Amino acid sequence: MEVRDTAHLRILLANERRDRLDLLAGIIDGMGHEVVGREIDVSAVGALTAKTRPDVAIVGLGESSEHALDHVSAIVREAFCPVIAVLPAHDPEWVAEASKRGLYAYLLDDRPAELQSAVDITLRRYADYHALRGAFDRSNEAAAREEKSAQAKQRQALELHDEIVQGLAVADLALKLGRDGESQAALTATLERARSIVTRELTELQSKGHTLEQLIGDTSRGTAGG
């Protein structure tokens, strides 16, 4: 994920008190950012978040700690954006609970310099998180592909054993018992099954971009090296 330019951000504000929303909105406007939404109602903030898709959401902690926590939860459910809390005083219990719900950062006052710094730090943390998450996803995808390939090879080995080795064993046993006709029939059927398996594997490899000439060359080099 690319780090957003923090010079101009679309910011959603949520607070229990309208006067605090207006005060914070004035600070945000003065910093050159755009306030895309303001909300005091917890039941409405989720829909507003989904509609505006802000770059950052700022939640103010008023008289009700639970009200602010519910704001954080509702915003996080609706948008992949970092959430910053503005607290009147240090409240470790609230911060710990808010972090569980998706809070990325908090600050203890709403001075413009402090708020801009919090926004910058939060966006960097958010970008780093998604970059790390992307690396884990890529690693997991590679591991899944390797596991799938290993399972396919195991199925092929079992199929070769069931279809070819057992068929040859039947043909050999019939030959030793003097049942030439049965031995020939078993051998013919086994060769047909072998041809079918090889044809299917070649078709699959060619569908993945391998040419017949490459496959023949690889086989020849492998035989020569052996």
Describe the structure.
- The chain is an alpha/beta fold.
- It folds into two domains: 10-110, Rossmann fold; 143-217.
- It is built from seven helices and five strands.
- A five-stranded parallel β-sheet has the order 2-1-3-4-5, with helices on both faces.
- Helix 1 links the parallel strand 1 and strand 2 (34-39).
- Helix 2 runs parallel beside helix 3.
- The longest helix is centred in the middle third of the chain and has 65 residues, at 112-176.
- It is rod-shaped.
Number of helices: 7
Terminal residue distance: 48 Å
* Annotation, overall tally of beta strands: 5
Helix/sheet category: alpha/beta
CATH architecture of the largest domain: 3-Layer(aba) Sandwich
Number of separate structural domains: 2
Low-confidence stretches: none
- Mean of the pLDDT scores? 77
